[in-house]
Design brief:
The structure holds 4 protein chains of 4 kinds. Helices cover about 35% and strands about 20% of the residues of chain C. In chain C, the strands form 2 sheets. Chain C has an 8-stranded mixed sheet with strand order 3-2-6-7-8-9-1-10. Chain C has a 4-stranded antiparallel sheet with strand order 5-4-12-11, with no helix packed on it. In chain C, α9 crosses α11. By secondary structure, chain C is of the alpha+beta class. Chain D is α/β, with parallel strands linked by helices. Chain D has 2 domains: about 270 residues, no CATH class; about 40 residues, Nuclear Transport Factor 2, Chain: A. Classes of the chains: A alpha/beta, B alpha/beta, C alpha+beta, D alpha/beta.
Chain lengths: ~290, ~140, ~350, ~325
């Protein structure tokens, strides 16, 4: 089963000024991790009622979130489209906009424009074994797809989730990890690079653990997301396990600004991550990935 | 220069915490009268003041900038105020050349015991700024 | 009669004044020693003598160095967003060169692809282009290698060719035809005028000395993408400044920044350049921190990636990046010097 | 096309031999010099470790770049061609500990002053690519247009900074190529723009700079070509806090230029490259040279003349300029 080229699945918005954000209110904030590079999940909803009903998106798409007066930054929508009551996105505190987002409290107003980019090809994933490989905050984009899959569990065969983080306190979405662990139909494998006394689970880098779990490659698709260093070591492992480049999907993190393929900075070769991605097969970006990525 | 009578100049004062800030404190505790136009920013040393602070303050609409530190030789870090002196000298001369009124950049040495002098410096600076009117240098957007 | 029209150079001033009733007319001007397009003040048409090409391309009228995207105001109910007032008055650019006109057609592709860019397109649809053929291309021009003739263009509404003390006028679009129909001082062109124009066009075509072989380059480009040694040598003298990209008529990269004072602010779009290191800087890493990667990106985006996405080379050979580069980095040398396919 | 009378050709040959031997003996990893440019009357920097490239090295009145800008970027030992102002920039980089003297072999060129093509274009009324030839000989220059040669005094076409040059012969060198040239200077012409500005009122000067900087498109050529600007990340690229927006608004452009000039005070050697590189014809040298003169006037400090001296802003005299301090 090969996915030739999923970049032609561009999602278009109706016309009108595509740069104008809608205003949205933050309804809930969850601290995923603490410390200098803390990660927070924001639950939010549009202020405009009509928009709340009409708004649709697909797992894997991202949006541009504005803190007015500070700037705009792209983050994936980490909640699943199957759950309509609110939307979620996760932010790692590292730069100007992310710091501003982390200073916001519940009830604060942000800008939202999107959804942009293509999405995970659900129709092509149906009837397949799914292997999710995620690292750190890389679980956020996959989380939307995982919940989407679990809410339509019968359409998919086995589901393996291999998720790792630097240390136990760096694990994100712990509440989801527990739920998926208890779920019989999901093989949840959590690992940490460096353990501490509170940790009783697996220890090891995600690529190594993936090799140990060794999910079978036939009728399987691997969906990978995490820091660039992890992605670079995961693809070779998957190839060793028998996955060919068309069976490997990733959602890339690149410096994006406009989110709609105009401002020019998120290109990998001739592909714009925001317009032709962010979801790519390894086959598409393999030629440029080594030298450009 | 338009000058309606109730206009009051807004001054930002970068005061070195060891001397001038203490001097300003002393002026307050000893009930010295001086105009309330100054907004004080405490800096570890007058040598910490970057020309960028001066220009950013003028850009945001302050009418004057005062940099005040310890007298030469009394700096807590020995040489901070000497470096500050060179930096402010060049900044002031270059900004004059660019076309910013010289009165908008002021500097003073005020030691921790000179509460009176601090009050007098602020009074003089306020008077000079009142003469040249509000800072409309960076006003128009286009 | 040939159906074509002509106008004497003497009547150009009257024509521009006439057009200024309806349009905001832009003409080449040398204010402050920089050739740019400036508003026509009804003054002299001396630019017809010295004008060869502007420093900042006509793209700046549609995609300016800085423009406000929208402003926002915060009050108790929250944020209110407001679009800036659009200038309803139509624009007319007199004297755009064929290379800049083709460049606008190339930019249209990106600004219309997938999502329409309202700022660029509103100005673009609101502007009439009056092309003016080149008689005297620079030694840095290489438009003929990109299939562009210095004195002919189909990307404008009217095309003027200098035939001595008159201009031959070719109506390219309906908009142009209507415009010239009502213009004063326009006469019918004779066979001789048209012959003269043909001569002028061929002469100026031959004057373009610099050449690149786009077919040959097409084959050498992809194999040379990973040739780090070649690109390190080519990039060694580059200073990573923004001149070549900002002054390039087909460069469209931009940055978006917010500014807010108290509770009133705006979002601004401004030119950005792939030559700047922070252009691709991400918090964790920067894929193009080495200078050779950035120089390579500029060449490949124009001669490899844009053709892959839109089927056309994003360069019109206007030569600005060569003329204005402070270290004389010449893109034609980098392209012609590509190692042969191994 | 050589723009020099025959007697200067042997200097070029000595330079090529010198550079070749440096590379052959492995005393340097790279040689930085000038080779003929791709357009008329231009030269372009040549940075090479290949000894055959040195045959392209040239010396003529158009070797305008200050090559020391590359020293902070190239790793390893470097042989560099340096005019008077370039060698002072190297000394200034040594003072700032950006470059180690032992890692550089300086091939000094006594500089007779360089020809400003903008001045030639204004003088002759033709663009540079329409001229046939420009040949300098001592204090005269012959400009040939449409086959017709015309002679002008050299001071009409030299760069403003060359007219005000104090150290045409390099201060620091390992080998000096050619004898010190007769210095043709005209200080008043060199400071003419600055004096005009000093004559204006405060409001007039402010309006002047406001207009100039409203043309700036923030291409940063002035900063990137300046050897004194060697910061890893410039203050205009800071986003937390965002002191200056990277948006070409005149207010932000002005703050950028003024603070940049204060940062390079005591490092700028008036090589004039910032003004030459600016595509929008903004008189940046009227700012840089003024700062240069201020530093000289206030602290009797001439940038890049003393390798051992500590940089301007890291030193002080007991008693110096403080008339403005209350």
């Amino acid at each position: 089963m090969t996915i030739a080229d999923i970049s032609h699945r561009r999602k278009f918005l109706k016309t009108g000024n595509v740069y104008l954000p809608h205003t949205a209110k933050i309804e809930k904030i969850i601290d995923e991790t603490f410390g200098e590079r803390a990660i927070r999940t924001f639950h939010f909803n549009f202020k405009d009622e009509k928009l709340r009903e009409e708004f649709t998106f697909e797992s894997g798409q991202f949006a541009e979130y504005s803190v007015f007066g500070i700037g705009e930054a792209p983050f994936c929508i980490s909640s699943s489209p199957t759950r309509k009551d609110h939307l979620e996105f996760a932010v790692l505190r590292i730069g100007k906009v992310t710091n501003a987002l982390h200073r916001l409290g519940v009830g604060a107003e942000i800008g939202f424009r999107g959804p942009y980019g293509n999405s995970f090809p659900l129709d092509l994933l149906q009837g397949e074994n799914l292997v999710f490989v995620a690292g750190g905050i890389g679980l956020a984009p996959l989380r939307s797809l995982i919940w989407n899959v679990i809410d339509n569990r019968d359409k998919y065969k086995n589901v393996d989730i291999i998720y790792g983080a630097r240390s136990p306190s760096d694990l994100c979405f712990k509440y989801d990890l527990d739920t998926w662990d208890k779920d019989k139909t999901v093989n949840m494998v959590t690992t940490v690079d460096r353990s501490d006394e509170s940790w009783t689970g697996r220890v090891g880098f995600v690529p190594k653990v993936l090799e140990e779990v060794a999910p079978s490659a036939n009728n399987a698709i691997a969906i990978v997301c995490g820091p660039p260093i992890m992605i670079r070591f995961t693809f070779p492992v998957l190839e060793k396990l028998g996955f060919n480049p068309e069976q490997m999907i990733t959602t890339l993190e690149k410096r994006m600004k406009c989110g709609i393929g105009k401002c020019g900075r998120c290109n990998i070769g001739n592909l714009y991550v925001c317009r032709d991605g962010p979801v790519f097969t390894y086959a598409q970006i393999k030629s440029f990935i080594s030298s450009e990525y | 220069m338009r000058q309606d009578s109730q206009w009051e100049p807004k001054i930002v004062g970068f005061l070195c915490r060891w001397c001038s800030y203490a001097g300003a404190d002393l002026a307050g505790t000893s009930r010295k009268k001086y105009p309330a136009n100054i907004r004080i920013i405490k800096v570890p040393c007058s040598g910490r003041v970057d020309p960028l602070f001066v220009l950013k303050a003028l850009r945001l609409g302050f009418d004057g900038v005062l940099v005040s530190g310890c007298h030469p030789g009394e700096c807590h870090y020995q040489t901070g105020n000497y470096y500050a002196r060179r930096r402010i000298a060049i900044t002031k001369k270059l900004l004059e050349y660019i076309g910013i009124e010289p009165q908008r950049i002021q500097a003073s040495w005020v030691s921790a015991s000179e509460g009176g002098k601090f009050a007098q410096v602020v009074t003089e600076v306020t008077r000079e700024l009142k003469e040249i009117g509000p800072n409309e240098l960076f006003a128009d957007q286009k | 009669m040939t159906g074509k029209k002509k106008i004497s150079k003497g009547n150009i001033e009257r024509l521009l004044n006439e057009w200024s009733q309806e349009f905001t007319v832009f003409v080449p001007s040398q204010e402050n020693g920089v050739a740019t397009l400036a508003k026509w003040g009804g003054g002299d048409t001396s630019f017809l003598a010295w004008y060869r090409n502007t420093i900042t391309p006509a793209k700046a009228n549609f995609f300016p160095p800085m423009e406000e995207m929208f402003s926002f105001r915060k009050d108790r109910e929250g944020y209110h967003i407001e679009l800036p007032p659009t200038d309803e008055r139509k624009q007319l650019i007199f004297g755009i060169r064929p290379c800049d006109a083709r460049a606008l057609a190339i930019l249209d592709m990106t600004f219309k692809d997938a999502y329409e860019d309202p700022y660029y397109l509103s100005k673009r649809n609101n502007t009439v282009l009056i092309g003016l053929g080149c008689l005297n291309p620079y030694d840095s021009c290489f438009c003929t290698s990109l299939g562009i003739s210095p004195a002919e263009s189909t990307d404008v509404d009217l095309m003027l060719t200098d035939i001595g003390d008159q201009f031959l006028i070719e109506e390219i679009t309906q908009k142009g035809r209507e415009l010239i129909a009502t213009a004063s001082g326009v006469e019918e062109a004779t066979e001789a005028d048209e012959g003269k124009a043909k001569e002028v066009k061929e002469a100026s075509y031959k004057k373009v000395a610099k050449k690149i072989e786009t077919e040959d380059i097409k084959e050498k480009l992809l194999p040379a993408f990973n040739n780090q040694d070649y690109w390190e040598r080519a990039a060694a003298k580059c200073l990573s400044c923004g001149i070549c990209t900002f002054l390039c008529p087909t460069c469209y990269c931009f940055d978006i920044n917010d500014e807010m004072v108290k509770n009133q602010g705006e979002r601004l779009r401004s030119w950005d350049s792939c030559a700047f290191p922070i252009y691709t800087k991400m918090p964790m890493e920067n894929p193009r921190v080495e200078k050779w990667r950035r120089v390579r990106q500029r060449v490949y985006h124009k001669y490899e990636f844009y053709p892959m996405s839109f089927g056309v080379i994003a360069c019109t050979g206007c030569g600005r990046c060569i003329r204005q580069c402070p270290v004389n980095w010449d893109i034609t040398q980098a392209l012609n010097g590509l190692p042969a396919k191994i | 096309m050589s723009y020099l009378p025959t007697k200067n050709r042997d200097v070029e040959q000595r330079l090529r031999d010198e550079a070749k031997s440096l590379l052959e003996q492995g005393r340097v990893d790279y040689v930085i010099g000038f080779e003929p440019g791709s357009l008329k009357f231009t030269t372009t920097p040549l940075i090479t470790n290949n000894k055959d490239d040195v045959d392209h090295l040239v010396i003529n009145p158009f070797i305008v770049n200050n090559l020391s800008v590359y020293l902070t970027e190239i790793k390893g030992r470097v042989g560099i061609i340096a005019k008077g102002c370039d060698s002072r920039s190297i000394i200034s980089l040594i003072q700032d500990k950006q470059v180690v003297r032992e890692d550089i072999v300086i091939m000094g060129i006594p500089c007779p002053g360089l020809i400003d093509l903008k001045k030639v274009e204004r003088l002759v009324g033709k663009d540079r690519d329409e001229l046939d030839n420009i040949i300098r000989d001592g204090d005269k220059v012959v400009i040939t247009v449409d086959g017709q040669g015309k002679e002008y005094p050299i001071t009409e076409v030299l760069y403003d900074n060359c007219l005000g040059c104090e150290f045409p012969t390099p201060q620091e060198y390992d080998v000096l190529l050619g004898e010190p040239a007769p210095l043709v200077t005209d200080l008043t012409a060199s400071r003419q723009k600055i004096e005009m500005l000093e004559g204006m009122s405060q409001q007039q000067r402010w309006d002047f700079w406001k207009d100039e900087f409203s043309r700036c498109i923030r291409c940063y050529a002035c900063r990137n070509i300046c050897p004194a600007c060697f910061c890893e990340r410039c203050f205009v690229e800071e986003s937390e806090p965002q002191w200056v927006l990277p948006v070409p608004r005149w207010q932000d452009n002005l703050i950028f230029q003024v603070v940049r000039n204060i940062h390079v005070a005591g490092r700028c050697t008036d090589c004039g490259e910032c003004e030459r590189a600016c595509p929008m014809n903004i008189p940046l040298r009227s700012l840089a040279r003024k700062t240069y003169d201020l530093v000289d006037e206030l602290f009797h400090y001439k940038s890049g003349t003393d390798k051992e001296a500590s940089p301007l802003m890291t030193a002080y005299e007991q008693a110096e300029a403080e008339d403005f301090i209350r």
